[in-house]
Amino acid sequence: MARPRISLLVSGLSRIFGNDLGRVVELARIAEDAGIDQIALPDHVAMGPHVERYPYGRYPLPLEEPYLEPLTTLAAMAGATCRVRLGTGVLIAPLRQPVVLAKTLATLDVVSGGRVDLGVGVGWQKEEFEACGVPFEERWSRLDDGLRACRALWLSEAPASFSSPSVSFERLWSLPRPLQPGGIPIWFGVAPSPRNARRIAELGVGWMPMPLPSDELAAGAERIRAAFAAAGRDPDELQVRANARPVTDADGRPDLEATLEGLPELARAGASSVSFPLGYFARGFDDVAPLLERLGKAGD
User: Fold this and answer.
1) What percent of the chain lies above the pLDDT cut of 70?
2) Are 13 and 69 in contact (CB under 8 A)?
3) Which of 20, 86, 89, 298 could in theory staple to 74 by disulfide, Cβ–Cβ 3.0 to 4.6 A?
4) Is residue 250 part of a domain?
């Protein structure tokens, strides 16, 4: 059984970088040198005050925590690296105008040499959608419409045309296209419902669930593989990026070695890669290099 690839979720920016957030570019170089397979950035355009609505328990960060715009930041990282893959985890895609999003992603893929992974979701904050002028109630339909529009611009023979309730265009040339065959790989950070399984089978290559017990991770992956088969796709094409299950020591501090011991179980449950949150395992920038060196070895 192959060891899962290692993905680094760049979180906890204020504690690690202080006011010098530009050092995330240095982080990318360190990650590449250490052998990390992927860097992933989370996304919030803006934060509203109602974090009690966070659907996954207690919101883990203060409202004052900064969020760098992912695609801008990944472009800077692309210029500082040559191998490590550059991902979002997740980009709240319905907040972006699809034609502009398609152009931005295609450009990033070209300048990075074909290293972009697009992880998408729909978010959970109504205030964030309202501030961007996007109806919160339409977030799922706009996700589908937007991604289909992106794929039309990336994969159709130019000029491309597309029609949907929220985005339509006729005879557009939008070049360059992504370098990666089949367009930019799309990963979905969604629950493994039957509808989402069909969504991933139609538009995606990967699934990025919230932390799940092994049996639920395996069952969700199997449901999505079945949807792949029903759509005429090879179920073995599905990629799954699971979350590392942090283990703490007797003093309540993160125990990286004990956490790494859980990788084989995640792989048996179907994980092809495992995401480690930087902000959980690193208390400051001095922790970054030794942490990433150890994670890189874990992926060998």
Assistant:
1) 100
2) no
3) 86
4) yes
Outline where the chain has alpha helix (H): 13-17, 24-34, 70-80, 98-111, 126-131, 139-155, 194-203, 214-230, 256-260, 263-268, 278-281, 288-298
The answer as to whether 144 is a domain residue is no
Q: What are the b/e assignments for 134-160, b being 16+ CB within 10 Å? A: bebeebeebbbbbbbbbbbbbeeeeeb
Q: What is the CATH number of the domain that holds 229?
A: 3.20.20.30
In a domain, 146, yes or no: no
DSSP 203: H
Domain that holds residue 48: 5-94+101-123+184-298
Q: Is the separation of the CB atoms in 70 and 81 below 8 Å? A: no
Q: How many CA atoms lie within 13 A of 250 on its CB side?
A: 0
In a domain, 167, yes or no: no
Rounded average pLDDT over 142-146: 98
